[in-house]
């Protein structure tokens, strides 16, 4: 099905309902890589539902062809991300004193207080805001695993139609791009509980529970439906059971290897079809907004009076906090209802200045900035590659011409020598590398990071040592740290790069680039030893190659885990390394292939073994470490971070009680007893 046909069958009915006053919701569900982002957003050359719906909506706002058109149509846009049960405002990502939360109002329905709602009067405004939000998501990557593949994004267009008789018809369209559904299956298979900081998206499990209960009619039978158990389902509460016309887009992969995931998605869609909503037109009489504002202002005054009374009588802190929270909520409601359209436009213009300043602080370049700065069409630039197709190509950095250098690092604008490209993440020190470009010749990159353990620069799959020069040419891939992969674009011949040059190859290219083990001496030494051992044991070459491929990928992940631990604490007593389970592999060579690969967790300097993890289990725990590192960057690296990892028996996959790996270790007797048990199980299966 092409994008135009998809919009005709899915997008147009949603828009028609919104114009009639019914709120509409579309959420895309399916495994990672099944085409959710492509269907929702799509490239410039083949736009998805959001761009086409926005274009048609603004065309109607300018020239309404309906028999009884509205005299004025006001459109506001919000864009948020849900990750680890936290809400992030993608239109204004500046630090906040209070976290965003979901609230339900009896008249206004479910909404997020203090979430930015930008006034938009054209499709170009809408797409500019969407592009800004994508840039914020892309720069939020701090390690090898993109958070976008494990987060949900919700774009909301709020439409207010003002008619000549004074009535105001309010509706909204919510477009949700959900995280990959395969995370839920992996969670159930490995017994990981849903918790903040884990790699599995627990909110999708809650969504499944809510859909299951609604499909069985639990809401009509008085049975509790757990909407509030996750931010996602709470936000979609109206869409799932209330005032909304809701559509689910089920995305499946045609690959035979993904048949189980595809069947799971289709079963989920079958359950969704059984859910029934009761949409209603939401119209306000001319006098109702003023009455609602008067009621809200009265509640604010009562809360202020109660708060002052409680403070003078020295109450418990909990009472004062509760009153203060209620007052804050009422004020946000009053602002949402009482802000005039003119005030909303002024606030959006001020927000545009803030957004431009944020992009400049991140050294990001966009087409308009390049034109204003006089950047020529042939100026080379770096364009990001992401495992999320909607984020590929949204980070663009122009290279400076000789004698100026393009520097990459973590230092900010207030430092003595600010970097040309400022990134924040694992493996990016204050100054990582320099790129020298002379017009008419090739560019040259040199790693300048003094700390080789913390700074990571990879060019076309080969890690660079400090001080080494490498010539660059068009199409080369550069990885800065463990999170950011870029493609170098030189010359004016490649015109596809901005939007659709990564559609078919970005995921495969990124996976190859990020996991390439070429050039790492520790990996080369280890694989050489394993190769010699397998030759000695008579393992066929094709099987040996398969083993080395598996181990090579795991070794890169282990190196990342060690780098994470190193950055999270100054002197973490734990290192990780990969070993083949030789005892099991070669005892059952013909019945168990490929061989089991496990990760040993050792405590240094004594080398005491703390745990043995299967590769799949290690992958889950690594995602947790990534999340902990991300929180450390957001909240300040000066704090002491402890991350709890569960110890899993490698042969059965059973979860033992949580053991603090990065926190202070348990007693020596306790540690030694567990280490001995794991080690014995490993060498004597």
Structure in words:
The protein has 685 residues and is an alpha+beta fold. It is 40% helix and 20% strand. α1 crosses α3 and α15 packs antiparallel against α16. The two termini are 52 Å apart. GO terms for molecular function: ATP binding; microtubule binding; microtubule motor activity.
Compact summary:
The chain has 685 residues and is of the alpha+beta class. α15 (521-536) packs antiparallel against α16 (541-568) and α16 (541-568) packs parallel to α18 (615-635). ATP binds at residues 30-37.
Q: What's the CATH C level of the largest domain? A: Alpha Beta
Q: What low-confidence regions span 5 or more consecutive residues with pLDDT below 50?
A: 183-200, 367-374, 493-513, 580-591, 637-685
CATH superfamily of the largest domain: Kinesin motor domain
Number of strands: 26
How much helical structure, as a percent, in the residues?
25-40%
Keywords:
single chain; 685 residues; alpha+beta; Kinesin; Tumour Suppressor Smad4; 4 domains; 8-stranded mixed beta sheet; 6-stranded antiparallel beta sheet; 19 helices; 26 strands; 40% helix; globular; disordered C terminus; Kinesin-like protein; Kinesin_motor_CS; Kinesin_motor_dom_sf; microtubule motor activity
């Amino acid at each position: 099905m092409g994008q135009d046909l998809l919009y005709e069958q899915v997008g147009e009915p949603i828009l028609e309902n919104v114009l009639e006053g019914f709120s509409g919701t579309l959420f895309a569900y399916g495994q990672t890589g099944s085409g959710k982002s492509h269907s929702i957003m799509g490239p410039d050359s083949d736009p998805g539902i959001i761009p086409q719906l926005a274009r048609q909506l603004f065309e109607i706002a300018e020239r309404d062809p309906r028999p009884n058109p509205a005299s004025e149509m006001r459109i506001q846009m919000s864009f948020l991300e849900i990750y680890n049960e936290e809400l992030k405002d993608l239109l204004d990502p500046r630090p906040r004193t209070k976290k965003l939360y979901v609230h339900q109002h009896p008249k206004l329905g479910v909404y997020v207080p203090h979430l930015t709602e930008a006034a938009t009067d054209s499709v170009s405004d809408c797409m500019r805001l969407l592009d800004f939000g994508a840039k914020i998501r892309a720069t939020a990557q701090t390690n090898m695993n993109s958070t976008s593949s494990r987060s949900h994004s919700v774009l909301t267009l709020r439409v207010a139609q003002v008619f000549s008789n004074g009535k105001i018809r309010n509706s909204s369209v919510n477009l949700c791009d959900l995280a990959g559904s395969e995370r839920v299956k992996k969670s159930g298979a490995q017994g990981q509980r849903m918790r903040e900081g884990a790699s599995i998206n627990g909110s999708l499990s809650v969504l499944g529970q809510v859909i299951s209960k609604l499909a069985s009619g639990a809401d009509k039978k008085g049975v509790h439906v757990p909407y509030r158990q996750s931010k996602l389902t709470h936000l979609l509460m109206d869409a799932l059971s209330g005032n909304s016309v809701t559509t689910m887009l089920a995305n499946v992969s045609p690959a035979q290897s993904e048949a189980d995931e595809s069947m799971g998605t289709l079963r989920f869609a079958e359950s969704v079809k059984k859910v029934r909503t009761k949409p209603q037109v939401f119209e306000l009489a001319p006098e109702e907004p003023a009455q609602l504002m008067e009621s809200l202002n009265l509640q604010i005054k009562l809360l202020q009076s109660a708060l002052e009374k409680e403070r003078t009588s020295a109450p418990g802190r909990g009472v004062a906090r509760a009153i203060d929270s209620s007052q804050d909520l009422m004020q946000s409601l009053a602002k949402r209802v009482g802000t005039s359209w003119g005030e909303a436009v002024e606030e959006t213009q001020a927000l545009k200045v803030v957004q431009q300043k944020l992009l400049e602080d991140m050294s990001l370049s966009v087409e308009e900035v390049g034109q204003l700065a006089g950047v020529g069409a042939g100026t080379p630039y770096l364009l990001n590659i992401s495992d999320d197709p909607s984020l590929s190509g949204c980070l663009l950095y122009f290279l400076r011409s000789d004698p100026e250098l393009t520097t990459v690092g973590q230092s900010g604008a207030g430092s003595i020598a600010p970097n040309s490209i400022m990134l924040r993440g694992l493996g990016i020190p204050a100054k990582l590398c320099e790129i020298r470009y002379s017009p008419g010749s090739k560019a040259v990159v040199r790693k300048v990071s003094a700390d080789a353990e913390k700074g990571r620069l990879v060019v076309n799959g080969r890690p660079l040592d400090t001080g080494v020069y490498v010539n660059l040419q068009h199409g080369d891939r550069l990885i800065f740290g463990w999170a950011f992969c870029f493609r170098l674009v030189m010359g004016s011949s490649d015109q596809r790069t901005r939007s659709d040059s990564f559609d078919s190859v970005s995921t495969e290219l990124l996976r190859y680039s990020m996991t390439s083990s070429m050039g790492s001496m520790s990996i080369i030494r280890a694989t050489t030893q394993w190769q010699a051992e397998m030759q000695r044991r008579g393992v066929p070459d094709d099987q040996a190659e398969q083993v080395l491929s598996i181990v090579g990928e795991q070794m890169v992940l282990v190196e990342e885990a060690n780098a994470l631990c190193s950055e999270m604490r100054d002197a973490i007593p734990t290192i990780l390394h990969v070993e083949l389970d030789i005892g099991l592999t070669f005892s059952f060579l013909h019945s168990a292939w490929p061989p089991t690969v496990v990760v040993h967790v050792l405590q240094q300097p004594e080398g005491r073994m703390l745990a043995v993890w299967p590769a799949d289990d290690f992958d889950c725990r690594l995602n947790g470490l990534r999340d902990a590192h991300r929180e450390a960057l957001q909240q300040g690296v000066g704090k002491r971070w402890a991350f709890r990892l569960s110890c899993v028996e490698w042969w059965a996959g059973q979860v033992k009680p949580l053991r603090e790996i990065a926190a202070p270790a348990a007693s020596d007797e306790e540690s030694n007893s567990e280490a001995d048990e794991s080690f014995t199980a490993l060498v004597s299966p």
